[in-house]
Specification:
9-stranded mixed sheet; 2 domains; Rossmann fold; 11 helices; Dihydrodipicolinate Reductase, domain 2; 343 residues; 6-stranded parallel sheet; alpha/beta
């Protein structure tokens, strides 16, 4: 049984790993009224910088942070290979965990984390932040209301070029530290979104290559998913794009939902024929606009705090995180063999 903290009590949290994404977690906790009292970071310069910026105690070792007894929850923002050890150490102490994606690099470790959360009475949230985006929530609501009918296929894309940098940032290009390239880094977000919109997946067929960077992992990938309900999805990810693109299109028997950040601001278009039959290109449409400053990472952290303090449903569970890992691993197996992976 999950142990909830009274909403009036202050929530003291720690952050394990003080790289770039950790700042979003810090902002989320601040927005939610939680106190970031400690963090762990092995890099001395980064640790000293965060101590000043966050006014929090820095530890070189996450175990020391957890044994200090000063936190009820932690965010895990380390390189992928260190997610499971840090999460398990926290969960076995009954400390709530928000773990950045991917939950782990293998399914056995995911299962251990889920079991440890259950046994320790702790919340385990996977950091698939897109579920907390108002745009995605609006799309999900329209799907649940039946406005697009039965989902038939979708396209999902997350692609960038590291800001035009000549090299891949940090540990992302190192296989031992990251566990994979763009299919894992970007693809797991899109796999989760595909499941969020379309339900469980029966099979995956994937291809990938390293086309631009001198790295140990793939920088370009494409995967085809088949859903239990018979629909399909194409998931496209790359570090070889120019600029930054995050987009999806969900098509159904009665309508379609289309979104792309290439439109200059977050916009969702709902296309349908609710007013009746017309020309092929003549449809009804509704545009939904969202604030560009509305950060889904921050919202995801706020939701984590609300789950701890008030019992709000966990926006992306450990089980959800495990499923996106399962799909990504299936994609790697498919790319290795040249065959679809079916479950």
């Amino acid at each position: 049984m999950t142990t909830l903290l009274p909403q009036s009590a202050p929530l003291n949290v720690g952050i394990i790993g003080a790289g770039a994404i950790s700042q979003r977690h810090y902002e989320g906790y601040s927005h939610a009224g939680a106190n970031v009292v400690a963090f762990a970071e092995t890099n001395v310069a980064a640790r000293q910088r965060r101590e000043t910026d966050w006014n929090a105690r820095g530890y070189a070792d996450f175990v020391e942070l957890l044994e200090s007894g000063g936190v009820q929850a932690v965010s895990i923002c380390t390189p992928n290979a260190f997610h499971a050890p840090a999460a398990l150490a926290a969960l076995r102490r009954g400390i709530h965990v928000l773990c950045e994606k991917p939950l782990s690099l293998d399914l056995a470790a995911c299962d251990e984390m889920i079991a440890a959360a259950r046994e320790g009475g702790a919340i385990l949230q996977t950091g698939h932040h897109l579920r907390s985006s108002p745009l995605v929530q609006t799309a999900k609501r329209l799907i649940n209301e039946g406005r697009i009918g039965r989902m038939t296929f979708m396209r999902l894309r997350q692609a960038h070029d590291w800001g035009g940098a000549p090299e891949v940032r940090g540990a992302f290009g190192n296989l031992a530290a990251s566990g994979g390239g763009t299919l894992l880094d970007n693809g797991c977000h899109m796999m989760d979104l595909a499941r969020h919109f379309g339900g469980d997946v029966d099979s995956i067929y994937a291809r990938m290559a390293t086309l631009k960077f001198e790295i140990e992992v793939e920088d370009t990938s494409i995967a085809t998913l088949e859903f239990k309900n018979g629909g399909f999805a194409s998931v496209e990810n790359a570090w070889t794009a120019t600029g930054w693109e995050e987009s999806f299109a969900v098509y159904g028997t009665e309508g379609a939902l289309e979104c792309s950040n290439r439109l200059g601001k977050p916009r969702l278009r709902f296309v349908n024929r609710e007013s009746g039959y017309g020309q092929w290109g003549q449809t009804d449409e509704t545009w939904y606009d969202f604030a560009a400053s509305d950060n889904a990472h921050v919202r995801s952290v706020v939701r984590f705090v609300q789950s701890i303090q008030g019992g709000a449903p966990v926006v992306c569970t450990g089980e959800d995180g495990r499923e996106s890992v399962r799909l990504v691993l299936g994609g790697y197996e498919s790319a290795r063999t040249g065959l679809p992976v079916r479950w």
